[in-house]
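#onboarding

Welcome to the new folks! Below is a worked example of what a typical request in this channel looks like: someone posts a single protein sequence, and someone else replies with the predicted structure as tokens. Don't worry about understanding the tokens yet, we'll cover that in week two.

Example request:
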Amino acid sequence: MMEHVDHILIVDDDREIRELVGNYLKKNGLRTSIVADGRQMRSFLEGNSVDLVVLDIMMPGDDGLLLCRELRAGKHRNTPVLMLTARNDETDRIIGLEMGADDYLTKPFSARELLARINAVLRRTRMLPPNLTISESSRLIAFGQWRLDTTARHLLDDEGTLVALSGAEYRLLRVFLDHPQRVLSREQLLNLTQGREADIFDRSIDLLVSRLRQRLGDDAREPTCIKTVRSEGYVFSLPVSLIESPT
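Example response:
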């Protein structure tokens, strides 16, 4: 049996960058394919499978954010995506993560760092930390006044009002609901929701927790759902119960 060689698709309108990156990854044992835009990406993925997509955000026509959202909505929804961006603004990175990206790298970058990020994303999307999983066995999960529909991926309050969640908000809430009353570090939350490790300056989980608290009507000064544990991380403090299981 032939050993599997990871196949990386590089989507970037800068020919020099995509060729340099493609050649470097090939020299380091990866199979690579390169395309210049969203149209070429769609055409390529119609007849090919890949293990990870390196996707530039700033491209003419359909930008990387739109293409990432499109990937997450289609048959390649589980394919890891690493976004390249020339922007160094934390809000832009959060938008990319909300669209479903697994990691990001800011231009200019070294090919060596990109290779390390690719290998880290592939490793972490294939192996969750010990004793931490995201369960897919339930359809409706109840907590407080809320119900989470895990099929439609939206929240319902006790009056039946629907609250839509972004992809990042859903994944974060789902992790909390699968591990209630357990302190989860930022590193664990990043591993489970975004497939990557945190660095000392990474505050994306804190921003997502803040956004999720707003969705839940949870007062950040005195939260009742998601509590901050100083120097450790966060804990989901409400009881969680399964309402309905699939037949």
